[in-house]
User: What shape does this take?
Amino acid sequence: MEWMDRFVEIMNIVSAEHQHGIGVTMLANDTGLSKGTLHRILQNMVKYELIVQQADSKRYYLGPLSMIWGSRFVKGKDISQLLSGYCDDIAEKSRMYAYLCRFVTNEVYCIYTHQPEQERKTYFVHIGQRMPLHCAAASKAVLAFQPIEKVRYLLEQTPRNQYTENTCMNVPELMAELDVVRDKRIAWCREEMENGVSALSIPLFADGATAFFSLSLVGTTAELSDNQTRIEELLLLEGQKVNEQLSGINAFSPIAR
Assistant: This one.
């Protein structure tokens, strides 16, 4: 079971460096493995999304699959459980499909969803889904509260797909949109990913300034347009309650009990 020993050791090291990531040289030093052996192991782990490699720094971080496994194991013990309760709450109040996303390793991933019983339509969002940085409301809500130069770099370097005629592909225009999000504390995706479907999202702050999570609602464009003011107010009020409770809680630490 030598391969399992290596796998567990690498996962332990990567998870211990989850905030800053770790390079292959340090991994080689810590494990005693050659860089060639490490590269082969890491490529397989990236393939299955157990870990991810950041394009600019080449550092490795925990991937979405390990996050999903971890969130299931620690359900009821970390910040995700607290946030999932608010996701359930806003879904029932708005009677709309709600989802929670997390920003990690320069990507935004869906980590939780809630579909009210009366909402029969199935939307594209699912747990583990990577949200496009340039057009998803969930991504815009988070990016608006990251360092500006980092955001510009991510938008320029990350592939941007044209999903609909409403998808904005121009980085300066996207940066200007994020200025509005920063001011209003709410982001929109108006048929930018799917015709006839729109979404709105708010940032969630664990330290008062930087957003690591976002809370979103998605529905038909007609439904959101007809009830825009009411839905925005519901979501912003929910966000206010979340942020008040999160004040002083580190986004990557267990909640004090």
About this structure: Strands lie at 51-53, 60-62, 97-104, 107-114, 130-131, 187-190, 197-205, 211-220. The chain is about 45% helix and 20% strand.
